[in-house]
Amino acid sequence: MKVSPQLYLLDGSSYIYRAYYGIRDLATAGGMPTNAVFGFTRMLLGLLQEHRPDYLAVVFDRPREETFRRKLYSAYKAHRDAMPEDLVPQVAYIKKVLQALNIPALEAPGFEADDVIATLARRYAAEGIEVTVVTGDKDLMQIVADRISLLDTMKDMRSGPQEVLERFGVPPERVADVLGLAGDTSDNIPGVPGIGEKTAAELVQRFGNLEDVLKWASLVNGRKRRENLQAHADQARLSKTLATLRDDVALEVSPADLQRQQPNLADLIPLLRELEFEALEIAFTPPPAGVVEIYSDGSGRDSGPGGYGVILRYGEHEKELSGFEPAATSQRMELLAAIRGLEALHKPQTVRLFSDSQYLVRGMSNWIHGWIRDGRLETPGALANQDLWQQLLALSRQHEIRWEWVRGHAGHPFNERCDKLAKRAADEGIQAAAAADQGEEAEQQEEVAEQVSPVPVAAILLEPGPVGEDMDFEAEDDGQLKLC
Q: Can you give the pLDDT at residue 476?
């Protein structure tokens, strides 16, 4: 089955403000604020890594004074505060980052970002491209269609036609009718006094659209509501015009212009260093020639289900691995993650293996030599996780490996991605196991239904136990007694 190409359109202004308010008090050593630039770049990096779009663009707003809506209605968005002073210089750096990443930054005189997004989304969806609009703005729900969906990365929520219907009570093509009647306080769109979003949705459901609601206003319940609809009919029409996204913006943009490209590292790396984004520099810097980088992480409890996540990097290539174990300790998952990463190599390689587990890194760098000398690695029962240590030793002898510790959950892009992969694998494994148990339980209940009334089987609750943290050990201590 042929997979349709994927176009992602990012609502740049939404991304900027989410980054700005999501991360505070970040600046260079010289005092230049960088919180919005860092947050924006980090969110963008996560999107690229997780979704890997074929086409991509970031769309920005023009100054609101320059848009056609402001000319139609001078109060449109007039109540909004000016951009914070410490954010203003960061916008230019965000656009520099996009330029170095070879990601188009689009805007159109006289129009808002939403109009540009609507134009491109509908244009390319009609050509068979799957379009995802990355935003948290409800106004864009009016353009949702079979090939157009919204993605709110903050909530990890995707919205299609059904989600729009659940949110507004009407299909996407009637969202502007609802907003025309109810107004929108965030954009200072007046609507009809006394009619909220729920009532507006009910009226549109009953009469079909805004014009028919106004036409049959005499049939609407409530004297005051009828009077307001009749008295503010023109205001409702204006409000719908303000709320309706234009899809006729003149844009000379072809799919080739939006196609994903490799970053311009000659521009990007110096820029990240100027901004003092060391962790992001790691994410965009390819491994040294001839070296395979493996990042691994495990997620588990003292006893119970667990997951692992692995990222392999070689040159410009990258591969993700993840998996689930129904019964494992957190330490076993850390070791298993490294094993799965090394098993993915098909020939001897020079490897740098990174992990936030001192148990793994110290074990393979230091402790294993002592275990081999005193026979503990081979003596049955002499060593915790003995089977996995043996597998790691056998795999390590096939390659030239440097074991490196990274501080976990401290903004390191690959460590955090591995952690996310591991936790997702564990969650999915638990859900699949629960579904299988429920299916088996249902079959058992059917078998005994005619004999006795079934007694509900309580679901097994996986109570979270304490997660062991890595510890520092003396050089001569192999950690086995303290860690296991």
A: 37
Q: What percent of the chain has pLDDT over 90?
A: 71
The burial class, CB within 10 Å (0-12 / 13-18 / 19+), for 378 is exposed
* Residue 406 CB contacts under 8 Å (≥ 6 apart), including other chains: 295, 354, 355, 356, 412, 415
- Look at residue 163 in the predicted model and tell me its pLDDT: 96
CA distance 318 to 320: 7
Question: Do 258 and 5 touch, CB atoms closer than 8 A?
Answer: no
The band of 200, judged by pLDDT with boundaries at 50, 70 and 90, is: very high
Strands 291-300 vs 350-355: parallel, antiparallel or unpaired: parallel
Rounded Cα–Cα distance for residues 422 and 297 (Å): 7
**Distance in angstroms (rounded) separating the CA atoms of residues 452 and 450:** 6
Distance (Å) of CA 108 to CA 242, 383, 436: 17, 66, 53
Residues 6+ apart with CB under 8 A from 118: 140, 143, 245, 246, 247, 249
Among 107-111, 138-142, 233-237, 405-409, the range scoring the smallest mean pLDDT is: 405-409
Measuring CA to CA, how many Å separate 292 from each of 55, 321, 356, 357? Answer: 28, 15, 18, 19
Lowest mean per-residue pLDDT among 8-17, 280-289, 393-402: 280-289
Q: What is the pLDDT of residues 72-86, one digit of tens each?
A: 999 999 888 889 999
Say if residue 348's pLDDT is above 90: yes
What is the Cα–Cα distance from 338 to 298, expressed in whole angstroms? 9
Q: State the CATH class of domain 6-250.
A: alpha beta
- How far apart are alpha carbons 138 and 14 in whole angstroms? 11
Yes or no: say if 404 and 353 are a contact pair by the CB < 8 Å rule.
yes
Pair 57, 104: CB distance under 8 Å: yes
Residue 8: strand pairing partners: 56, 132
Cα gap 192→217, rounded to integer Å: 12
What distance in Å separates the CA atoms of residue 385 and residue 392, rounded to the nearest whole number? Answer: 11
pTM beyond 0.90: the answer is no
Pairing of strands 400-405, 148-152: unpaired
Alpha-carbon distances, residue 149 vs 7, 43, 415 (angstroms): 11, 19, 30
Q: Which residues are catalytic?
A: 297-298, 334, 356, 409, 419
Domain map (residue ranges) of the chain: 6-250, 277-415+469-483
Superfamily of segment(s) 277-415+469-483: Ribonuclease H-like superfamily/Ribonuclease H (3.30.420.10)
